[in-house]
Fold this protein.
Amino acid sequence: MSVRELVVLGTASQVPTRHRNHNGYLLRWDGEGILFDPGEGTQRQMLRAGVAAHDLNRICVTHFHGDHSLGLAGVVQRVNLDQVPHPVTAHYPRSGQRFFDRLRYATAYRETVGITEAPVDRDGVLASSASYRLEARKLSHPVEAYGYRLVEPDGRRMLPERLAAHGIKGPDVGRIQREGELGGVALDEVSEVRRGQRFAFVMDTRLCDGVYALAEGCDLLVIESTFLDEDEGLAVEHGHLTAGQAARVAAESGVRHLVLTHFSQRYSEPEEFERQARAAGFDGELSVAHDLLRVPVPKRR
């Protein structure tokens, strides 16, 4: 049975707190694991969450501020220590290549796993598989930053009543799925499009076109809400979003489940982020993230 869920490893911005580790997010998707923004302490948080180095297939870094990347050194070395038997690919802004190099080789260790470097320097598709298409969109932050989006290919949903009306049953159901036609009956006549699931990861950014492109039609959106609405001036100055801004993006983009995260240490009441998100008009499923939270990708409609 395939598993699609988000495992939240850390939710703090800039500095960790007593209750929040630096950023870190693992998306489990049909047997693959994609680690987003491994901040300081990610390796230990993985241990606490039951995430192994063997679970990692890709590492996606949005930008090279420390709270999003300082844990990369430990994760890379753990991948090598555990001799992960499959390829691991790293995506990150090409402009930060020197930072990636320093983190990858921060200390001496035995390199046993060839990590494939796949830097990002433009919007577009980064990778494709039978299970998903990984895309990137540029964001608006003081240093170059990209958000990431997974899109599952659309499929077909067979309609039992239409199959029965055409006398199609048993092995013939699989045959018409494979061949697209059976005895003069087209696949379109006995099925409908099953929309693929969509996931997006949006970290440090002001409002920009990239935010909306990433969020559009998402089943699960993970998005920073560093500030509360009363501090919008600070958010704009430092290249961040407020809870209300993030929620309005989600509402306008048709997001089903919104996960707010990356909270400034100045706030001690997470309930206020939820209140402001609701006040901004988002009425879907909402999670104010905390460390070690698990969020399933919503089932297909």
